[in-house]
Amino acid sequence: MCSCCPRTRNSTVTRIIYASILLLGTIVACIMLSPGVDEQLKRIPGFCEDGAGSSIPGLQADVDCQMFVGYKAVYRICFGMSMWFLVFAVLMINIKNSRDPRATIHNGFWFFKCAALVAITTGAFYIPDGPFTYTWFVVGCVGAFCFILIQLVLLVDFAHSWNESWVDKMETGNSRCWYAALLAVTILNYILSCIAVVLFFVFYTKPDGCFLNKFFISFNMLFCIVVSVVSVLHKVQVHYFSVDHSVLLSIFQQIAAPSPEPLEIENQTAVVIIGTEEPVLTSPYLQWWDGQSIVGLAIFVLCILYSSIRTSSTTQVNKLTMASKDSAILAEDGSSPDLSTGPRRVEDNERDMVQYSYSFFHCMLFLASLYIMMTLTNWYSPDADYTITSKWPAVWVKISSCWLYLALYTWTLVAPLIFTNRDFS
């Protein structure tokens, strides 16, 4: 059976498994949000037969079936995952190579580690409500913001890497073809960005109100225009032939920003305005599943997989993306030990030096778990009567991340002009 598997490296397999565990936890959290969970619980003999509001036989009174549905279940599942990754982040500090005994724990013992994850997650459901929900909401906001900062660096690196790759092909291959492709992508980015801005004004503003929404959209649009002008300056073009992906990427960052505001849904339409009334859920498991949340979650999964298995070209970003410059996950030089003599298909390529920081890798997955929690719950914190209470800090987390991304991208363009004695290649 092992001979049928492709040859790969231990560092790659380990990261893929951890990313798959995170994805599996996300799927379980999504299942807990589905409206049919309450009906399925009733079918279990002697367990929640009266629905989500009933108590569980044999357990204390403050632990009832409401813990297994809705936002409360997502908070506890993500609490278990995040604590599991946090323990490993602390345990794996300063591992230099795979000969360290702790590296064996990191790369093996999967049954026991998964059993510990299940135990921690199960124990989380015994935590009484009280201050847990609000406290974990605050922790989730902080952790999700930190994860967004890491994503911003990855997005900037992705934009520059895409530019460099296509420009190199334009200079070495069919220049007309690749120049046309660069121009087409640039025009497409601006068209999509303009369409998004128009839709923002249509669905998130009203002629006689929504002044804060108008400010957010207008300021972000002006910021994008400034970045576009900077990117086409002659002195900047000497260092970068820039295709402005930053505009479209920042527009997507803004898509999610207006929605967490304290909202009022008027006439059951798509028009969202700032108000004082709070929407009330009829049950703890009927959630808001819109296109924005699904797209955001899908892009998150792609980002975490990308950051787990990719190889970067700069030392600074290598430290962030857990990849080494000289040791790619997909080896380009093809140098590896001959494994054809045995069934072993996984190569230990970390006996001399680890290919990524184990501790930082788990720290990022810890933050990713918190980001998942905030994304699935739409950055809301439910109280005891299922009223969804929106928090202004969540609004500013998303808005500030959008502006920070544009500022960071602008800095990567102008930094070579300011610090001429440094190598930014």
TrEMBL record:
The chain crosses the membrane at residues 16-37, 73-95, 107-127, 133-156, 177-203, 215-233, 291-309, 353-374, 394-419. Coiled coil: none annotated. Its main location: membrane. One of its GO terms (cellular component) is membrane. The keyword Lyase does not apply. It comes from the Eukaryota. Keywords: Membrane, Transmembrane, Transmembrane helix. It is a multi-pass membrane protein. InterPro entries: TDE1/TMS (IPR005016). It is found in: Membrane. Belongs to the TDE1 family. This is Serine incorporator 3. It comes from Cyclopterus lumpus (Lumpsucker). The lineage of its organism: Eukaryota, Metazoa, Chordata, Craniata, Vertebrata.
